[in-house]
Backbone:
């Protein structure tokens, strides 16, 4: 049975581990091997410890777990963009748990949370050009590619990204 809940401080380590694994699996061949196999876990630990120990008022982090094992998470920020609304900053599901609807439940939960805060808000995220499986997933959920840009993340790893958008949250929460 999958349990969905708000993340707590003790989730920082399993989130960092899943985030690192997800990047290593999904971005192989997109990002350099020295980035994916370097100090990525330590960098992700620092990010998630800060986010969970010093949360901002505009932040929502949800996790999915089976038993004691974290199998997915999502992180979003309200009012991140005056045009597009709430930023879905992260959505990751354990590679061995994909296809079970975990990502769909997480993204719809974030959409409901955002809608409660501001019904006029949209939802958007950045997707790496090489992450075609994620692009297809978001398109199945009704998102459209609205913009092409480049991001330098992690530093020294310039990547082409697409802005995927849901201008109306009701399309995700109905």
Residues:
């Amino acid at each position: 049975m999958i349990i969905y809940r708000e993340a707590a401080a003790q989730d920082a380590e399993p989130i960092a581990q899943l985030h690192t694994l997800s990047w290593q699996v999904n971005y192989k061949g997109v990002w350099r091997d020295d980035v994916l196999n370097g100090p990525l876990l330590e960098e992700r630990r620092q990010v998630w410890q800060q986010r969970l120990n010093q949360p901002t008022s505009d932040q929502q982090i949800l996790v999915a777990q089976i038993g004691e094992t974290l199998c997915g998470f999502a992180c979003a920020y309200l009012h991140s963009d005056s045009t597009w609304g709430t930023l879905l900053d992260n959505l990751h599901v354990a590679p061995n748990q994909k296809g079970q609807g975990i990502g769909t439940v997480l993204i719809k939960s974030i959409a409901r949370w955002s809608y409660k805060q501001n019904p006029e808000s949209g939802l958007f995220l950045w997707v790496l050009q090489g992450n075609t499986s994620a692009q297809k997933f978001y398109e199945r959920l009704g998102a459209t590619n609205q913009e092409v840009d480049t991001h330098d993340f992690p530093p020294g790893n310039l990547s082409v990204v697409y802005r995927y958008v849901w201008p109306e949250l009701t399309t995700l929460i109905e």
Observations:
- The helical segments are 12-26, 33-36, 40-53, 102-117, 132-140, 170-173.
